[in-house]
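Work Package 3 (structural annotation) set out to generate three-dimensional models for the target panel prioritized at the project kickoff. During this period the team completed the workflow that converts sequence records into discrete structure tokens, so that structures can be stored uniformly alongside our sequence database. As a representative example, we reproduce one entry of 540 residues exactly as it appears in the project archive.
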Amino acid sequence: MVVIAVSIITRQGKPLLSRQFRDISKDRVTELLSNFQGLVANSSSQHTFVEDEHVRYVYKPFDDYYIILITNRQSNIIQDLDTLKLFAQIMNSYLSSFDEHEIFENAFEILSSFDEVITMGYKENLSMAQINTYLSMESHEEKIQEIIERNKEFEAAEDRKRRAKEISRKEQERKMGIPSMGLDAMRFQTSNDPNLSNAYSSYYSQASPAAQQSYYHTQQKAPAAESPAPLPMESSLGGKGMKLGGARRSGLGAHVAQLHTPARQAVAPVTSSLQVEEPEKTVNNGILVSVKEVVSAQISREGNVESSELKGSLELRVNNQQLAHARLALDSNIDAKDKSFQFKTHPNIDKNLFLTSAIVGLRDQKKAFPFNDQSLAVLRWRKVGAVDDSVLVPLQISSWVSPSESDQGMFDVTFELEMRESYNESLNDLRFALPVFTENVRVNDEFNDLGASIESIDDENGVVVKIETIEPQATATFSLTVEAEYEDALFPVSVLFSNHAAHNSFSGIKVSQVVSSNEESEELPFDAVASLRTEEYTVV
């Protein structure tokens, strides 16, 4: 059996689709189809095939169309009819009304299915179910490429954030008349000591800008120490010296602090304001199960989710030796084989037991969990959201920016916040950090549903706005009027929030029962707590 071509034509002989499986020209196929129309018109046979001196036409009428199989005359007619039947099934699977327009719309899918059935003119031994499977098969290489593209997007977002901060810093430096701290500006100018000059030329000319700046300030302070100038206030109090864990301030930040010390005295330091405070250790009554999750997202100014990721861990704390032989049964709604969550168990956990029964237990049942009241992560998961999918976004944010009508050089920035309906927990200690360093900023009271306030202003983190709490399923708005050179200088906005005392996890993962791993399998009492915090949550 050799199939030359398969075609779909109207009853009037108009060709709609045709697929050639042998080396044959379009004009030749058109000629054969026109001959078919005459053979069918003159045929008085009840069979569904006709022949001429070169080829055989095996056809099937449906509605106002023919589906035609063109084969050689030596082909097995039984096999040809079986192939034609399979082609008819393919047509029925893609078409509902057999309209000409619908045939053209599904032409690519129909012809792709034909290619699966016939290879180089010979029929493959396939069923309709196998054809559908082959056409819908996913590509591993495509998934790898998608992951690579997402990683590139994350890297590009970080680069945009860094560039935005750098541009904002340089604009503020220019406005305040601070000279650029380049190599030429930091050359040693105050000392005539040739040894010092040689030392600078040999080492500091090749050092990093930070080292050059430090050397410059050291040399600037030396002549001041020789003059009988009054001691600063810190000296009379004993001095503060070096502080462990203190904020590192760049040279530009130090200059700005010196220029604006009176104006900034009332402003609280912001170095630690963008760090989520660790909660107090939860009281453990024997067995404490903690679900800790971290969410990251990149949201456009219009509120579209460009990327999102959720990472979580299930931690176990035991402080009673009698309760250390335990197994944790996850909720029945959780599918341990769900590929989207990318579950990963601790090496000492029985992975097969988890995949088959969604139970977290040790491989060796004779062993017990540590009972030193220290948290042990027994299960982790990671889920990446698709573009424009807000499933992994607990707080939806959209922004509106427009030049202020009353103040020149100012922008009105309005943020609309909407909690995800499926997350019935509140979010606490919200921070919105705009990467602009200016004290010319205020919260507009007419658009302030959540009591937003300016928490701090810093040359590193910019303007930080604080909101205490946003309740579940809430929709709210707050607005700022802030000075900026241009709109893009206000972005990206970093967002932080947390909830360390939630009743339910954001992903829905929870432990429904804790039982003993001994033969009795008795149920053990336990307490459960969930938490959620941000890692990289930005509006770009």
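Residues 94 and 109 are 8 Å apart (CA to CA).
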